[in-house]
Amino acid sequence: MLTEDSAEQAGTGAPVVAAIRAAIIHGDFAPNQRLVEADLSAQFSASRASVRAALIELANEGLVERVQNRGARVRSISIEEAVEISEVRMVLESLCARKAAERITAQQVRDLKAIGRAMRRAVGSSDVVGYSELNEQLHRRIREIGGQRTAAQVLERLRAQSVRHQFRLAMRPGRPAVSLPQHLAIIDAISAHEPELAEQATRAHLASVIEALVESAETKQRG
Hints:
Helix content is about 75%, strand content about 5%. It contains 10 helices and 3 strands. The protein has a 3-stranded antiparallel sheet. Strand 2 and strand 3 form a beta hairpin.
């Protein structure tokens, strides 16, 4: 099934790589699913050559795996790799939070506070999907405020690779109630122009994510 976002990207003449990337991130293609050039060409109204080039680029990003004599497929990310990605995210997200605390304006403080209030409402109403979307929005907004473009580009690629694990983690019972105060602590530190506290709060949050992923891996092994 083609998502609204990926359909819009394909229909407006945006590069086919963006449309296929969106479809993978949004779960339209399952891990290890074969990506047949002819099918993608028809689905995204693109030439076979542009689809082939897109798959090569997505392979470089770590979203697609090209198998000799067997074409391409969606790369499956293990929990162990998701933990490694989160460890890298911890370093880069902390840098972005520190930069955001140094640069944030009064209007941007209001923006972050508004996201925080929306996250509270989502947890209070058990809107797990809405909370997950706000989570992504918050981290993206912090990266934008921090203005560290190189870190932001790397983080976007890492997020794309681990998005399925992040979503499953967000769906775990009780997880939003754990992460909400962590996110609010990040918002408060950045809003108060406290770079060190912002960095510490972000590290604490990602450490919690890593711990939850490790617990998930151990549970899977026992099962």
